[in-house]
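Q: What would this chain look like folded?
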Amino acid sequence: MEAGIEPEDIGQNQEYAGRLEYHGDKKKDCTLKITDLRERDSATYTFRFITDQTRGRYYGDPGVTLTVTGLQVKVTGGHQDKTLTCSTTCTLTDNPTYIWYKNGHKVKEDTSSLDSDSFSDTDSYSCAVKGHEDLHSPAVYGPRNTSVSVSPSGEIVEGSSVTLTCSSDANPPVQSYTWWYKKNGGEHQSMTGPQHVFNQIQSSDTGEYYCVSQNEMGTDRSRTMNMDVKCE
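A: My prediction, written as structure tokens:
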């Protein structure tokens, strides 16, 4: 164990609630069964026993490392000719049949790859292996619920520090954020990054702002925010 680091008691962790079964005899056997296994259960596990002696706390070092893998949809190709591939590091039987789902509904039985030139930014896609339909991959989908927030909130006064943040729900994660803005009726201009910081905002920064998020599946635009900077 790493010096000074107390391992977590998984029996007290709600993530494991109802999923732990102790099969040991508390003498020579410390067998533990974890049911309904999840990828986030991947960790190094050790047993611990405590005696009534001073400093009588011992760990089964180095423990057992558990790696949990599952199906994953990988996205390749361009915006108009994407390919979705259902992959796993698990060993499967020869030539398994894959089942593809769109928005949770079965759409096709196919090989591990799904080709289409009509994927929608607003739809989600997942896969499973035939015979194990209850074990879906996490869904992949284009950005959604893209929004702009301002910190601090409230009235914006010239000379203050203001941060604009663009956020979005997406899987795979957002690759890029692009801001578009038009100050005082001028032309639209762009800048990149999930945040834009005005260290000393000016009245000339008054204008319309929105952001566009993008991942391998598509793009999504936030609503336009009208920012009004007050003179001191």
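The chain has no helices and 22 strands.
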